[in-house]
Amino acid sequence: MRQEETPFVREALPQLKALREFAQSLCKNQQRSDDLVQDTMIKAFRHFDSYKQGTNCRAWLFQICKHCFINDCRRRRYEPVAVDMDEALSSDGPDHASLRELHPVLADVETPGALSGLLSDEVAQALEQIPLDYQTVLILSDIEGYSYEEIAEFIRAPLGTIRSRIHRGRKMLAERLKGFAEREGYITRILEAA
Fold it and tell me: Please, which contacts does 120-127 make with residues 24 or more away whose CB atoms are closer than 8 Å?
């Protein structure tokens, strides 16, 4: 006798393949993307009562995944760097001159790009205020560096739609960040340089 499918199994599990592809596109690292999918599905299961059944479950899962990814990047920003001090000291001269030129090594060497593109809190908050369709394409294009064609293929949308969403998303983001840019002096520097 087969048990009746739960709403979570019926609506969320069919989106697993698309969720894996989305996580892989964000992380560009199999282990991190697997962890991201797991975190996303756990949060989705725990909070499935907040999902309105019959709506776009894929978009809801992608939103959770994006938030988990951003939180993971923020957490990684504060992780200590790994430096092999024994090796550095043993290859150094008596005055330890080469230690002055020691460059830290990121603990997650497989994904250096993920840390270099971290968002400030202001940018992350502004990004969260725009609709999910625009957030997704902006993350994929401006943060992760995918081409418009790659994004269109991944999202399965026409190229013109992707261009339009990126253009409109950037305008929405710029409007929300205008005050921040003025406070930080970015607008003044741009005007002075022109």
Answer: 122/177, 122/180, 123/173, 123/177, 124/70, 124/74, 126/173, 126/176, 126/177, 126/180, 127/173
